[in-house]
């Protein structure tokens, strides 16, 4: 019987030690020594001899998992789920939590607004992101993007007076281009409004095109 | 979330350590002795092995002192003693606990007549 009880104690202590590998070595050794002394004193002072008594003793102690969890908590550490697993295992346990919220309506609602917000952020700092993202995306806005170039030159003016003339000319050119674009825009809007009317008249000619459908009958001609 | 086990765990957290301090207030006790004493308290029922990590922390924060001593019957025992810091912490808890308990009793309606 003593061999079996000794085996049970050794197995218990071994299980506990495996689960305490995340603890600082001195804390681990201290706890193992205390638990071992506890078991020994209980056996000596309470006459624990039978295997059933010993198992009851170990049960009162708590499973190695429970004791280890308390040890990590008292040490201010998170409990690794598996004895041998490193912190990566703990992270894997933590990660499943974020996926839970997404199923709810609110998160999905938030996810949709985000992309537009990001695009707005990119558009606002013209000078920085414009050269990278904006040009390929938008061909129309280039004239609008012109002004952004002006600000940086303004800063350079403080340094080199010689560039001021060139920059001023560039600014004037940009302004001219902008005015031209604005004028062109007005022209287009006016033109489009004028063209719409004829466009309405156009449908009439299109109707004659429909008669072209009779073309299928062409086989009959053949 | 609010099952019985969870509640007792929450209540035990933050109070059990001062029960340990009070237990060694007047005389030094060894680990197994402290653990046995807690085992007799059903309301504090916790796995005995979880007391040892608590003792370890109380020693690390300087509220308990410990020394190994030979036992007349059995293996060496580790005796725990209350330090001055532990004594003042215990006194602080006592005053805090009384006002805390009165407030909870008043709000929850457990104050009695």
Please write out the topology:
The complex is a heterodimer of chains A (222) and B (113).
Chain A: H1 2-19, H2 25-45, H3 51-61, H4 64-74, H5 87-94, H6 105-111, H7 114-123, H8 126-129, H9 134-137, H10 142-149, H11 151-157, H12 161-201, H13 203-209, H14 218-221
Helix pairs in contact in A: 1-2, 1-3, 1-4, 10-12, 11-12
Chain B: H1 4-12, H2 16-23, E1 29-30, H3 31-39, H4 51-60, E2 64-69, E3 77-82, H5 84-108
Antiparallel strand pairs in B: 1-3, 2-3
Question: What do these coordinates show?
Answer:
Chain A is mostly helical and 222 residues long. Chain A is built from 14 helices and no strands. Chain A folds into 2 domains: 93 residues; 68 residues. In chain A, 73% of the residues lie in helices and 0% in strands. With 113 residues, chain B is α+β, with helices and mostly antiparallel strands. Helix content of chain B is 54%, strand content 12%. Chain B is built from 5 helices and 3 strands, in the order H-H-E-H-H-E-E-H. In chain B, strand 2 and strand 3 form a beta hairpin. Chains A and B meet through helix 2 and helix 4 of A and helix 3 and helix 4 of B.
> N- to C-terminal separation of chain A?
109 Å
**Helix tally of chain B?**
5
Roughly how many Å is the radius of gyration of chain B? 16 Å
Count the DSSP helices of chain A: 14
Estimated share of beta-strand residues of chain B: 5-15%
* CATH fold descriptor of chain B: Arc Repressor Mutant, subunit A
Total strands of chain B: 3
The sequence of SSEs of chain B as H and E is HHEHHEEH
- N- and C-termini, Cα separation of chain B: 32 Å
Q: Any idea what the shape of chain B is?
A: globular
User: Structural class, from helix and strand content of chain B?
Assistant: alpha+beta
**Shape label of chain A:** rod-shaped
Give the ordered list of helices and strands of chain A: HHHHHHHHHHHHHH
What's the number of structural domains of chain B? 1
Helical fraction of chain B? 40-55%
Roughly how much helix do the residues of chain A carry, as a percent range? Answer: over 70%
CATH domain class of chain B: Mainly Alpha
What class would the helix/strand composition of chain A place it in? mainly alpha
């Amino acid at each position: 019987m003593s061999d079996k009880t000794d085996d049970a104690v050794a197995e218990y202590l071994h299980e506990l030690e495996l689960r305490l590998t995340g603890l600082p070595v001195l804390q681990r050794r201290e706890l193992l020594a205390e638990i071992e002394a506890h078991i020994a004193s209980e056996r000596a002072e309470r006459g624990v001899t039978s295997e059933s008594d010993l198992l009851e003793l170990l049960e009162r102690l708590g499973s190695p998992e429970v004791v280890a969890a308390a040890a990590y908590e008292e040490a201010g550490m998170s409990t690794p789920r598996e004895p041998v697993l490193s912190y990566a295992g703990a992270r894997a346990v933590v990660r499943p939590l974020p996926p839970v919220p997404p199923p709810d309506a609110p998160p999905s609602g938030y996810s949709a607004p985000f992309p537009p917000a990001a695009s707005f952020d990119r558009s606002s700092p013209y000078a920085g992101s414009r050269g990278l993202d904006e040009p390929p995306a938008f061909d129309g806005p280039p004239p609008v993007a012109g002004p952004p170039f002006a600000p940086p030159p303004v800063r350079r003016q403080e340094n080199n007076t010689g560039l001021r003339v060139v920059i001023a000319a560039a600014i004037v050119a940009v302004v001219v281009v902008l005015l031209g674009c604005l004028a062109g825009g007005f022209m287009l809007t006016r033109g489009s409004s004028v063209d719409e009317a004829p466009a309405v008249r156009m449908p009439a000619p299109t109707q004659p095109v429909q008669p072209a459908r009779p073309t299928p009958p062409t086989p009959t001609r053949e | 979330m609010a099952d019985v086990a969870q509640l007792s765990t929450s209540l035990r957290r933050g109070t059990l350590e001062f029960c340990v301090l009070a237990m060694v207030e007047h005389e030094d006790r060894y680990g197994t002795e402290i653990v046995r004493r807690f085992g007799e308290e059903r309301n504090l029922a916790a796995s005995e092995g979880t007391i040892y990590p608590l003792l370890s922390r109380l020693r690390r924060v300087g509220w308990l002192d410990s020394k190994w001593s030979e036992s007349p019957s059995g293996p060496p025992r580790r005796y725990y003693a209350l330090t001055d810091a532990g004594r003042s912490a215990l006194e602080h808890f006592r005053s805090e606990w009384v006002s805390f308990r009165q407030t909870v009793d008043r709000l929850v309606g457990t104050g009695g007549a």
